[in-house]
Write a structure and sequence with these properties.
- This protein has one domain (2-107).
- 80% of the residues lie in helices and 7% in strands.
- The chain is built from two helices and four strands.
- A two-stranded antiparallel sheet has the order 1-4. It has a two-stranded antiparallel sheet with strand order 2-3.
Length: 109
């Protein structure tokens, strides 16, 4: 599996390098909410957009991770409480049956 991943990574890297060499002379200017950047090569603009998207996706993934971690801890705490409750109920049931056995023995049955 790692060989397939490495192949696709190298293929993607080759495409990026090929694209950047072909478009090295193309200059673009970015406009975003009234902000205008200086002219820059197209590959720099694409790299900036890629890194911005990667950052947003990473922040979303972190938010989702911590949200799920919070839910997991709450479920684990609930599970531990239920396990303790089951243990207490079993102990009560066991104590009742022992008490019933000792009463039967004292009566002579």
């Amino acid at each position: 599996m790692w060989l397939v991943k490495a192949f696709f990574f190298l293929l993607l890297l080759f495409v990026i390098v090929f694209f950047s060499v072909q478009n090295a002379s193309d200059m673009v200017m970015l406009r975003f909410f009234g902000y205008e950047s200086a002219e820059m090569p197209l590959i720099e603009a694409l790299l900036f957009a890629f890194l911005a998207g990667l950052s947003v996706a990473g922040l979303f993934a972190l938010w989702k991770y911590f949200s799920l971690l919070k839910k997991y801890k709450a479920a684990l705490e609930e599970n531990n409480k239920l396990v303790d409750e089951i243990g207490a109920l079993r102990k009560i049931s066991f104590d009742d049956s022992e008490q019933g056995d000792s009463e039967e023995l004292s009566r002579g049955k």
